[in-house]
Amino acid sequence: MAETSEMVITLTAIGNHKIGKLLFNWICERKFDDGSYWCGFTFPDMVIWPEDKISWTNGVVIMAADALYQLSPASDLFSHKFWEISEHASAIR
């Protein structure tokens, strides 16, 4: 889930929100009963592995949601457009 979330962040950063949302929606179904996200699973048998509940996996899922849906001021942290605009603003000062 962490690597897929990183891909969502990357896709969003380059402006490909459509595929980013598609991948993120796929991730949203992959969680335990307590709401925490799986670390991963095996394919094609879809066995959750490892069964650990890892904080950084859940953290990057939150970051992906933020990048897609702009939930916090940090949502543009990886956005290419944001940094381009910021560089131009700095040059004007």
Gist?
This protein has 93 residues and is an all-alpha fold.
How would the blueprint of this fold be written?
Elements: H1 2-13, H2 17-28, H3 55-69, H4 80-92
Helix pairs in contact: 1-2, 1-3, 2-3
Summarize the biggest pleated sheet: none
In helices, the fraction of residues equals: 55-70%
User: What is the gyration radius calculated from CA atoms?
Assistant: 16 Å
Indicate the proportion of strand residues: under 5%
Which blocks of ≥5 consecutive residues have pLDDT under 50?
Answer: none
Estimate the global geometry from the Cα principal axes. Answer: elongated
The N- and C-terminal alpha carbons lie at a distance of 41 Å
The structural class is: mainly alpha
Domain tally: 1
Average pLDDT for all residues: 90
* Beta strands, count: 0
Count of helical segments?
A: 4
Order of helices and strands: HHHH
